[in-house]
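Good morning N.,

You mentioned wanting to compare the apo and holo forms, so I went ahead and generated the holo version with AHM. This is what I fed in:
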Amino acid sequence: MTTLAQWLVAETEDAALRSVVVSMADASAELAAVLRVAPIAGQTGLAGHTNVQGEAQKALDVISNDVVLKHLRENPAVSVLISEELDDAVHFENQGAFIVATDPLDGSSNLDVNVTVGTIFSVLPSAGGLLQKGRAQVAAGFVAYGPATSMVLRIAGDVSVFTLDGGGEWVQVVAAATVPEASGEFAINTARERFWDAATLGYVKENIAGEAGPAGKRYNMRWVGSMVADILRILMRGGIFLYPLDSETTSKGGRLRLLYEANPMAWLVEGAGGRSTTGRQDILDVEPTGIHQRVPVILGSAEEVRRVEDWYARG
Ligand code: AHM
Ligand code: MG
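and this is what came out, ligand included:
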């Protein structure tokens, strides 16, 4: 049995970096306990506020942000927190070596129906400033609060998966997640078809054509509505996730946020042998222009992502 603490020591000599990952693991373990009983504690529903993205905040969005903020503020290795739920970056008094960007509770529209939600985070060197490309990440991870609480982590090497046991210990369950090269599953919100560009429409239509289509095989569609759950599935058994730029999201640059959704997920998927793209470039090469910047997101099994890239190259 390998615990998170043992894995961290093997993964990096940098004790400060290890401590940042431990802070996020501690925050997530605390959140897992909160989420488990939230309907009893009356913590479901709206908080009555709107965040900087113009989205109605749920009570648990606010609670999750507070829990992550508390754990990171206590850690002298962290200088800055960027959160989906906070308009501005929080600069701590500590001159720590790391910046953390987080979506403290991803998929919160699924909260009231007891479907998997999660916490996503990205760790960057403080020296690079707030706006760094995904390629600059020194660690990234996410936690999925599902039937089991799972944490996916990458520092420099392999992508590792841990499960929170009953005693509060994170136990490694997968040492090196590998996204299969090919897959027969795709994830996209098909209700948005009327907004899609030609590349997205072309790719999805080919998949739906099944054995008779150019892909020559049958596909299934899966869309949880929580990116953490969709990406965990892709890391375990392959597939592709698409939230492309469409005619409704063009003015915003996309739907999902670069610093704390797209970049950590792209870093994890690429670390597990998959690919990521906006359609035009690798997500990890996108130069950020704002902390809440949005970006088109296409990632997963390399063969599938290449097919989408081919469609974009045509138009
Ligand atoms: P959130 O951070 O406000 O929860 O939004 C992000 C979520 C992703 O988890 C998910 O993939 C996507 O939004 C779902 O979008 P849609 O509502 O179009 O299905
Ligand atoms: Mg999110």
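The CA atoms of residues 203 and 308 lie 6 Å apart.

Happy to go through it together on a call whenever suits you.

Best,
F.
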